[in-house]
Design goal:
The chain contains 4 helices and no strands. The chain is mainly alpha-helical. The mean pLDDT is 78.
Length: 104
């Protein structure tokens, strides 16, 4: 059994009540369905975020006493600072001569 025999005007014709290219009723149904889906998805997203925040999963607080400066890699930071200082010295040592305009 073919679908054309069940739906002679087509599936979209049965659902939207017309096979027209532009149909205001069909367009309003599509818009309402899209907005309803967006509203439901926003509500679900807000609920998930609310439950994560209320359970404490989203934000973890750390006591200031637990923070250690030992976690910083001071040797690597010193190498990085020395690298930047060397680059600034190279830039300052370069002399840029004024460009002479050949059209004059």
């Amino acid at each position: 059994m073919k679908l054309k025999s069940i739906f002679p005007t087509g599936i979209s014709g049965k659902f939207y009540l017309s096979n027209k290219i532009v149909g205001s009723k069909r367009d309003w149904i599509i818009l309402m369905c899209v907005f309803l889906a967006l509203i439901i998805s926003v509500v679900v997203f807000d609920f998930v975020i609310y439950t994560k925040i209320s359970s404490g999963e989203m934000y973890v607080s750390i006591n200031r006493s637990e923070l250690n400066l030992e976690n910083l890699k001071t040797a690597e930071l010193k190498k990085l600072i020395e690298n930047f200082e060397a680059k600034t010295q190279k830039v300052t040592s370069l002399k840029i001569e004024p460009v002479i305009d050949p059209s004059i």
